[in-house]
Amino acid sequence: MMLQIRKGILDSEKTDIIFPTTLETVQTEMRGLEEFGKSYGVVRSVSGEGPAQLLTGRVKVDDLNTEAGIQNLNRLAKVIDNMSDEMLKLLSGALALERAANLNDVLRVTDSLEQYEFFPQIRTDEDLGHFLVDTSFITGKFSFPEKTRPYLDYAKIGAEQRDTLGGAYTAHGLVKRREEAPVQEEAPRAVVLTLMSLEQSDTLILPASVEQLEQAKRALEIEDFSQAVIAGIDYTVSCLGQLIPMDCISVEDANEMAHCLQSLKTDGEIMKYCAALEVEQPSTFTGALDIAIDIEDYELISDSEWEYGKQVLRRIGADDEIIDTIDGYMDFAQLGRDSMADDGVRRTEFGLVRRLSKPFSEPEVGQAML
């Protein structure tokens, strides 16, 4: 995510800051712009570039001067940088709908996107009027005889219902609050899908119940999810977006994946899954799902060769008394190094990991092996 800071709204003197970053880096950039720019003056404006354009006017200079502000921007950067185009459009519309004026407003809306829905085909009151009449005609909510429909004032119908629906038009379509925010008492969200059919789009929060899946089908006006396109997927754990491929993805498999992710209760278990993905490098979504289902076949281990050597002894039946007795007479670290090689332990960004059923195969070029 990139932000530009300027001395004034229209000032050509500017500097770019890439987030995530640190408070020290930001303050250094700001001082450089203020002290060494062509004209004298303090930084007065902040604007977003690329996907971060939706932050223009909502991030203040004061946000760049505190550790809390930088941490909030860093958190926001990780979310925005991993959003699909559809989710960015939804976020932009939700911010406009809620009249988000500052960074706290942006974070609040971003953390509750499941409460909004997006209709790319509705951009005017007339579009809304047509949509309401068509869907009402189908469901029987209102009675509009077919022969009267060419004479209806669709723009007036849309204008009268816009405030009732709680929506706002954007350049990309209508964004409105959901009539009922999704309730998932059994488990919080793990995956957010953006779905598109020929006429509709919808966001689906996973894991979802059978009834919630059926509601999504009705919203998309389809009988089967094969009739819709998965336009984007977002994970609560952002790094999964780079590790899990989209090939061969289906709504049903995505829902099962969400259930698997919910079963990973601790950060350590999530890191183990990420480490397994980094080593296994599945080529399809179903391959990544198989790893999630078999997650107990993997183990994150300590970086300490000395401790790993002791763990190997425990595996073959040695208790702590025996290990304490031979301590000083045995090279635990050497045993650990040799055993790591035999066990196929692999180093990843998320820690050392091994596969229990059989050692990992030899690494490809660029992969790390101990």
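(the above was protein one; protein two follows)
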Amino acid sequence: MKSLYKRELTMMVGIVTLSFTLLSTAFMLLSYRYIISETRDRLERNADYIAAATSDYMQNVSGLSLVDEIKWNLYQSIMETVSDVSDASVIVASTQGEVLYATEEAMYDKHIPSPVIQQILEKGTYAGLTDLDGLYSSNRYIAGLPVRTQLSPSLTANIGLVLVSGDTGGLSEMWRSTATIFFFAAVVVLLIAVVASSITSAHQARPLTEMAEAARKFGRGEFDVRVNNYKDRCDEIGELAEAFNSMANSLAKVESQRADFIANVSHELKTPMTTIAGFAEGILDGTIPPEKERDALNVVVSETRRLSRLVRRMLDLSRLNALTETVTAQEQFDIIEVMSRVLVSLEGRITGRGLDVDAQFPEDPVMVWGDPDGVTQVCYNLLDNAAKFAAQGTDITVQIAKKDGKAYITVKNLGATIPPDELPLLFDRFHKADYSRSVDREGVGLGLYIVKTILGNLKESITVTSEDGVTQFTFTLTLA
């Protein structure tokens, strides 16, 4: 497995190496072209000047000779000055290639190569890197021009050649110096990149490693592990650590709820099963007299129904969990009709506790989109919950209103005020508020969770408020 550290280090080294390679190549090419261009222009200017001076001299003395010693010395002085100032070698030759004058003594009695002569005479110029077929010990940059004389106002003739050459050793030395500078700069930057990448990679990989270890501990059932060293980091790692801890808190909460649920279910199952077994054994062994067997059987039936309710809630929970991954089919129905049927089904429970119902419904049907069976269960759970916790002799208010394309269904009762810190937890699975445990002995904390799940599948919302003993649940449905 490749680690994040190795990947980032390899990427950083590769980027730095590629950058310096491209930069050095581009710089060398540009500098080469610039220096060659500057050298060519300089040598061509010198060659033009020397050609003009040589033409004047040849016209005055009929060729390069010692006829006029003063003029000859002046001509030599000019050539040597140009050679010294420009650090160039000067050759003056006849049109046949015979060297007539050179700033280097070794050039006398030698001939210029025919291709060079031909190009100068035909094209009027020559420029390039060459050793003139061995005249020089190494390649030099050479600029050549013809020496012309004016025979008439409209006619000129070539009477000689001028070649000015520059040594390329300086250019090579510059390239070597540049390469050395680039090499050392690349090494320094590469070392800095390696150190910076190592620190950065370690800084990034450390929390990921800790989170991976924490995740493994979660897998072993250690739900108290948290990643708490990165709260002050204002970057993606800090957000990831925060999200990880939030997930850990949720997992720990679910685990705690699961344990509570198992304890509650075990208690709920144990009590009726013990009662059923006790009365059944009493009937079988004669402990319960015949005249009391009917009362005992009524207790057995009651406890059996209690078990049935518990199992039904568990099946509802399992079904809803399966539906969360599917799209719930929706159809049009009248929410007033659904709520009225639920009120009728709960009439006995409501009147049994001395409660009244204040139904505030519009006169016309309110058609909505949704799952009629699911919405029926939502209404049943909310009304059953309101009847269970409402104070005896009070009213349960059921209101249906339309606003902004939504139907708002409200179920309100008067009873104990739910603490503010309990309100966000009411829709959690297996949650039962502490204040209700003495009242709700049949529930297991699934009713409101089922409500929230059904409405979530329908992309609808539900809210709850509780102030001064008035608890109000309001959920929405989309108008058809």
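Reviewer note on protein two: The chain has a mean pLDDT of 80.
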